[in-house]
Specification:
One of its GO terms (cellular component) is plasma membrane. It is a peripheral membrane protein. This protein is elongated. Helix 9 packs across helix 10 and helix 10 packs parallel to helix 11. It has twelve helices and eight strands. With 319 residues, the chain is of the alpha/beta class. 45% of the residues are buried. It has an eight-stranded mixed β-sheet with strand order 3-2-4-1-5-6-7-8, sandwiched between helices. 51% of the residues lie in helices and 13% in strands. The termini are close together.
Length: 319
């Protein structure tokens, strides 16, 4: 099995451990589907549909996968149940690879004019692991020798600002913050000015995680984006939505809501190690047509991984 980029044996081992619950649940359901059957027929496909939906792959993505397998069965006339795992794995891998525009297999990002910092605005509801993801991202970038500045623009919760300060100290990177109830756009503005002045490579801005009023959220995020663009034309370069994988299809619903509120162009799916709902990554990647860039497979500071599609599918199928 060839893994691309910098994907090491250690990372693969961690990925295997992180997806253990999802893999065990999925494969046991799959095994029950084909027991006592020798060929893939309509009944097996019906059962397979149920397996995929109950594994949080999502209805629309499941139907797409089933349709592809039906075409394969119709073309080959006879497909044994022994071949089903391989076919299913190939179709899921193919589906994931169709949505990879602009995604690399490491923590690199493009150079910007005048060596401007790469600006990442992070969005997501409270409790999904947003601030923790920012801290882990900052750690990964710093380990690559990049200069990182954090911005605490989630000013509606004191805990969010405090948590980001703790992460900045833990990782050893500077933070710009104005405390609770400060204007988020003002914090974002100061962060980018500071990042430029320090010759930083990347600035990561935390934002408030509220979905109860989409109009307010949309206005707030639009204002933050406009202010950033004044400091660094084209910023933010990346709007990263953080989703909690353990919430299954609810994560997909959140993704849809945030996509209506702002122009998300990257996703991070966290907490996959504590759930059997890892299939949600497949559905979100397919349905949102926004690349899953990072996945969280453990609580450790190094347990945020760049989403390696082939490695993910291999681990999901226990290989």
């Amino acid at each position: 099995m060839a893994l691309f980029g910098l994907f090491s044996k250690e990372k693969k081992k961690k990925l295997d451990e992180g997806l253990e619950k999802s893999k065990t649940s999925f494969l046991s359901k799959l095994t029950r589907t084909v027991v006592g059957k020798s060929k893939v027929d309509a009944e097996v496909l019906d059962d397979l549909e149920e397996v995929l939906i109950s594994s949080d792959v999502g209805v629309n993505t499941t139907l797409k996968i089933i349709e592809r397998i039906e075409e394969r069965v119709a073309k080959d006339k006879y497909v044994s149940t022994d071949e089903l795992n391989g076919i299913l794995k190939a179709e899921i891998a193919s589906l994931l690879k169709e949505n990879t525009t602009g995604v690399t297999d490491n923590f690199e990002f493009p150079k910007h004019p005048d060596n401007a910092p790469h600006v990442i605005m992070v969005v997501g509801v409270n409790g999904v692991g947003k601030t923790t993801t920012i801290g882990k991202l900052a750690n990964q970038f710093k380990n690559q020798g990049k200069k990182v500045v954090l911005g605490a623009a989630d000013t509606f919760r004191a805990a969010a600002v405090d948590q980001l300060i703790i992460w900045s100290e833990r990782v050893g990177v500077p933070i710009v913050q104005q405390g609770m109830n400060a204007d988020p756009a003002s914090v974002a503005y100061d962060t980018l000015q500071s990042a430029k002045a320090q010759g930083a490579d990347v600035a990561i801005i935390d934002t408030a995680g509220r979905l109860h009023n989409k109009v307010n959220l949309m206005n707030e995020l639009s204002k933050i984006k406009r202010v950033m663009d004044k400091v660094i034309p084209g910023a933010p370069h990346e709007i990263l939505l953080v989703l909690d994988g353990s919430t299954g299809q609810n994560a997909y619903e959140q993704a849809k809501q945030f996509a209506l509120a702002t122009d998300i162009n990257a996703l991070a799916v966290t907490k996959l190690d504590g759930t059997a709902k890892g299939g949600v990554v497949i559905g979100i990647s397919d349905q949102m047509q926004i690349p899953v860039k990072y996945i969280g497979v453990g609580e450790g500071i190094d347990d945020l991984q760049v989403f390696n599609k082939q490695a993910f599918v291999d681990s999901f199928f226990g290989e």
